[in-house]
Amino acid sequence: MLVLVGLGIIIGELVKSYYLNALHSRIEKEMNIVINQTEREPSFNELRSELFDELSEVLETRITILNEDTEMVYDSGQTVSDIDHEMMLDEIDNSLPGPSNGIVRFPADTDDTNFYYISNVETGSESGYVVLAASFDNLENVYRQIWLILAITLGAALGMIIYIGARITNQYTKPIESATEVAIQLAKGNYKARTFEDRADETGMLSNAINILARNLQEMVSEQSVQQDRLKTLIENMGSGLIMIDKQGYIVLVNRPFLTFFHSKIEDVLNESYVDVFKNQQVNALAEEVFLTEQRVRKQILIEETFPQKHLEVYGAPIIGERSAWQGIVLVFHDISELKKLEQMRKDFVANVSHEVKTPITSIKGFTETLLDGAMNDKGALESFLQIIAKESDRLQMLIQDLLELSRVEQQGFKLTLGQVDIAETLEDVSMMMTHKANQKNASIQLDLQKPLMIEGDADRLKQVFINLLTNALTYSYANQDVIVKSKKLEDRIQLQFIDHGIGMEKEELSRIFERFYRVDKARSRNSGGTGLGLAIVKHIIEVHNGEITVDSEPEKGTVFTITLPLKVNK
């Protein structure tokens, strides 16, 4: 618009200047015609007025002729403007041109529409002046027409430019702005942004390419996010502890099991030096070995800082990136505490079975050899030795029966003979059976039960559980201390507590009380005739009933065994 307005002003001034120059040139030619006609006259006093009147009418100018003394000798009297002619002649009289000045133009006013043209002239032997007055009143109309044409032309051009600009904006600018906005959104991570694809030209191709790029980026980011979530879930929920150390020795990745193993918090581990994090020297030594040798290392270590102590198998390996770039090491911690526990249980089982079997077999063999050596002839010795042999045989038989019973209960296909069992009635029967053993301790079995206590279960197996627990309670109780059995009804379960006031157990013994052949007081257990397998059998029977058994004990204060049984066994 600025260019068009400026161009209109310039063109208008050029047309105006050209028009004025053409008018002035015409007047000067007319002036020459009047001068030539004047010079043909014999004198100023003999001018032919009718000739000059006709000339003034034809030229549409006012002709005034002055003599040398500036006295008017002829005036056509034609009105060309509303200007005072006499006054203009007085002003011209003060600035008359010389013979060498030619035609001089004298403006009549400031609006550039009225002009006087003066020239020196000679007639015969006299000199004088010719004055032509011309009015350009139609110049304003010409200006208006020029500006009207320019306005129409420039308006049409401006409208066309606006139309073309709008087309360009719609066709190029807006698609490019939309593509730019989408590109900015993609740069910010918004991969769902899309632009319009409503054209088949270059901008349409650009929009299509950006949309394809956005879709590909969205798919890539989604797939990467899924893979990252899967990897994170795998790392966080794997059973082994994982830790990654960069080449500067700082921990850059750690998972939840590792924090659990070492009872640490992630803010105390992440981005910290492994030397400051690992308090166990064995772990530090293994990490340093991997750093120095760049070889895979596998070791078993014992973490004594935790309770209970943990046995870990640590696998360390270097991280080698592309082009053999050294990036750090990774350590994987496998918790093998259960394996170590099972291995120890197996060793203890073999040792205990060997020990338990060895004692009665040694006694039987020794007394048998003594009888064969001649003691059988002594009737008293024969009877005594045979009683000892029978007792040891019974003990061996009971051990074997308990082993078979435990093996049968632990079998995968072991099934219960289910039926409705009144726990209160069963406990009363067992209490009657244990009366003799309780009397030996000058104690009794106190039953604090809610009746009825009906559940679904195997009556014989449950009775076996109650007998075992009451036997242990009486065995490990002090004299004159009653054993109490309490019951509690829960929403869909019942809870039984077997309470004694005896020797109790240390805290570290509670986790092993249900192991085979484990004895808290080995001397008292063996004197009582126990095999050390009763609680292991009890635990398995309760678990087969979908129940739980726990133990709480303090040394010299007693022990509480708590059994929770469901009202209905889920088959």
Automatic annotation (TrEMBL):
<feature type="domain" description="PAS">
    <location>
        <begin position="227"/>
        <end position="300"/>
    </location>
</feature>
<dbReference type="InterPro" id="IPR000014">
    <property type="entry name" value="PAS"/>
</dbReference>
<dbReference type="InterPro" id="IPR003661">
    <property type="entry name" value="HisK_dim/P_dom"/>
</dbReference>
<feature type="domain" description="Histidine kinase">
    <location>
        <begin position="352"/>
        <end position="569"/>
    </location>
</feature>
<feature type="domain" description="HAMP">
    <location>
        <begin position="170"/>
        <end position="222"/>
    </location>
</feature>
<keyword id="KW-0902">Two-component regulatory system</keyword>
<keyword id="KW-1133">Transmembrane helix</keyword>
<dbReference type="InterPro" id="IPR036097">
    <property type="entry name" value="HisK_dim/P_sf"/>
</dbReference>
<keyword id="KW-0808">Transferase</keyword>
<dbReference type="Pfam" id="PF16736">
    <property type="entry name" value="sCache_like"/>
</dbReference>
<keyword id="KW-0067">ATP-binding</keyword>
<dbReference type="Pfam" id="PF02518">
    <property type="entry name" value="HATPase_c"/>
</dbReference>
<dbReference type="InterPro" id="IPR035965">
    <property type="entry name" value="PAS-like_dom_sf"/>
</dbReference>
<keyword id="KW-0597">Phosphoprotein</keyword>
<dbReference type="InterPro" id="IPR031967">
    <property type="entry name" value="PhoR_single_Cache-like_dom"/>
</dbReference>
<dbReference type="GO" id="GO:0005524">
    <property type="term" value="F:ATP binding"/>
</dbReference>
<dbReference type="InterPro" id="IPR013767">
    <property type="entry name" value="PAS_fold"/>
</dbReference>
<feature type="transmembrane region" description="Helical">
    <location>
        <begin position="146"/>
        <end position="166"/>
    </location>
</feature>
<dbReference type="InterPro" id="IPR003660">
    <property type="entry name" value="HAMP_dom"/>
</dbReference>
<dbReference type="InterPro" id="IPR050351">
    <property type="entry name" value="BphY/WalK/GraS-like"/>
</dbReference>
<protein>
    <recommendedName>
        <fullName>histidine kinase</fullName>
        <ecNumber>2.7.13.3</ecNumber>
    </recommendedName>
</protein>
<dbReference type="Pfam" id="PF00512">
    <property type="entry name" value="HisKA"/>
</dbReference>
<dbReference type="Pfam" id="PF00989">
    <property type="entry name" value="PAS"/>
</dbReference>
<keyword id="KW-0418">Kinase</keyword>
<dbReference type="Pfam" id="PF00672">
    <property type="entry name" value="HAMP"/>
</dbReference>
<keyword id="KW-0547">Nucleotide-binding</keyword>
<dbReference type="InterPro" id="IPR005467">
    <property type="entry name" value="His_kinase_dom"/>
</dbReference>
<keyword id="KW-1003">Cell membrane</keyword>
<dbReference type="InterPro" id="IPR036890">
    <property type="entry name" value="HATPase_C_sf"/>
</dbReference>
<dbReference type="InterPro" id="IPR004358">
    <property type="entry name" value="Sig_transdc_His_kin-like_C"/>
</dbReference>
<dbReference type="InterPro" id="IPR003594">
    <property type="entry name" value="HATPase_dom"/>
</dbReference>
<keyword id="KW-0812">Transmembrane</keyword>
<keyword id="KW-0472">Membrane</keyword>
